[in-house]
From TrEMBL:
<protein>
    <submittedName>
        <fullName>Branched chain amino acid ABC transporter substrate-binding protein</fullName>
    </submittedName>
</protein>
<dbReference type="InterPro" id="IPR028082">
    <property type="entry name" value="Peripla_BP_I"/>
</dbReference>
<dbReference type="InterPro" id="IPR028081">
    <property type="entry name" value="Leu-bd"/>
</dbReference>
<dbReference type="Pfam" id="PF13458">
    <property type="entry name" value="Peripla_BP_6"/>
</dbReference>
<dbReference type="InterPro" id="IPR051010">
    <property type="entry name" value="BCAA_transport"/>
</dbReference>
<comment type="similarity">
    <text>Belongs to the leucine-binding protein family.</text>
</comment>
<keyword id="KW-0732">Signal</keyword>
<feature type="domain" description="Leucine-binding protein">
    <location>
        <begin position="27"/>
        <end position="373"/>
    </location>
</feature>
Length: 387
């Protein structure tokens, strides 16, 4: 009887131990750098929305740790972006994310590397940012949009077609996009051999800002236009191009029609038929995107953009890395874990980090079409896997 009682007591003790609640994990701080005002605010809002949505869907935790998300205003200059990063580092963040501007990304590069705190950038991604250890990017490298469209248009245009290339002068990322496009299309191809038309680089151009340059481009009688604009400048360029009488094809990296641009084009039909290349379309039919897009629309009454998706993925990447880093993660152990997470099940489709710490991912051709009473970017086909 005593033996039986002893065994029973031991069993009860084991059961009691097994049922002990797990030790609560300590809170962690994550810093998000994004524009909170000015021309970059729309992108900044999307970066914040995407990251926060992932937290909302995961009980406010990453890797099991409660998250204190600290948001700092990137502003619209390298100086303001640097100040935002410095302030977050002083607060002891485990990791950083966000960054809308490529100029800011360049400006903070050395600070991040010296601080040895991982940055999972969710927008800015210039191709010349190389040989980094603590900077990862969940968006895209800028030349890839040009490469994806160059490869497509090389075959889609007829032998007698001509394409005008119109871009803002000295635009950050413009050289990357143009280089990628020409490399894939064929630099000596007579269909794009004409000189590039450069326009003002004003982020908020007036109603006549592009007229003279558009007239120069159309004097060559092109059948299609390849361009590179975003935000308010994109809406103005589209409207002024149509006002000049151009009814041919318009092709561009996806930022031309992403975010609030389509809401700003008047008449709305001016944007119909525009085709863009991007790593995401809100109508992609996969389980991860159905969950993400549905939750985003429910919370914000709008379709998600590539900016929100990349920030959502940045949170997912951090979630997995922090979990892999163990009970007491440090910036250095999280950074090491980022290299071990493998394939990401993303709303854009599965992707993974390559050696330069950027995504190897699919690119999609999208077309502006009617979606009920509004215009939307609808996925037409896959273009390529790049990265």
């Amino acid at each position: 009887m005593l033996a039986a009682l002893g065994a029973g007591g031991l069993a009860a003790g084991c059961a009691s131990d097994a049922e002990e609640p797990a030790k609560p994990k300590s809170p962690v701080k994550v810093g998000l750098v994004a524009p909170q005002s000015g021309v970059g605010k729309a992108v900044g809002d999307e970066l914040r929305n995407g990251f926060q949505l992932y937290l909302d869907l995961n009980e406010g935790r990453l890797g099991g740790h409660p998250v204190n998300l600290l948001v700092a205003d990137e502003g619209d200059t390298v100086k303001s972006g640097q100040a935002a990063v410095d302030g977050l580092l002083k607060q002891g963040v485990l990791a950083l994310t966000g960054v809308a501007s490529s100029a800011v990304m360049f400006g903070i590069r050395d600070t991040i590397e010296q601080a040895r705190v991982p940055l999972i950038g969710s927008n800015a991604s210039p191709s010349s940012l190389q040989s980094v250890v603590y900077i990862w990017r969940t968006s895209y490298v800028l030349d890839e949009a040009g490469r994806a469209l160059g490869r497509y248009l090389r075959d889609a245009l007829g032998p007698d077609d001509r394409m005008a290339i119109v871009m803002p002068e000295s635009a950050v990322g413009g050289d990357d996009v143009l280089l990628g496009f020409r490399q894939e299309f064929g630099e000596s191809d007579p269909r794009i051999a004409d000189q590039v038309i450069f326009t003002t680089n004003n982020a908020n151009p007036g109603k006549g800002a592009f007229v003279r340059d558009i007239d120069r481009a159309l004097s060559r009688n092109p059948s299609a236009v390849f361009c590179f604009y975003s935000g308010p400048a994109a809406a103005e360029f589209i409207m002024q191009l149509r006002d000049a009488g151009f009814q041919g094809g318009i092709y561009a990296p996806g930022f031309l029609t992403e975010g609030t641009v389509l809401e700003s084009v008047r008449p709305a039909n001016d944007a119909l038929g525009i085709r863009t290349a991007l790593n995401y379309s809100a109508d992609l039919n996969n389980a991860a995107n159905r969950r993400f897009a549905s939750a985003y629309r429910k919370k914000h009454s709008a379709s998600p953009t590539t900016y929100a998706m990349a920030s959502y993925d940045a949170a997912k990447v951090l979630d997995q890395a922090i979990r892999l880093a163990g009970e007491d993660p440090t910036p250095q152990t999280v950074n090491l874990a980022l290299g071990r997470i493998g394939q990401i099940d993303s709303p854009r489709g599965a992707w993974q980090f390559n050696q330069p710490r950027t995504p190897q991912q699919k690119w999609y051709l999208r077309e502006v079409q009617h979606d009920g009473q509004v215009l939307s970017n609808v996925m037409v086909s896959e273009l390529a896997t790049l990265g």
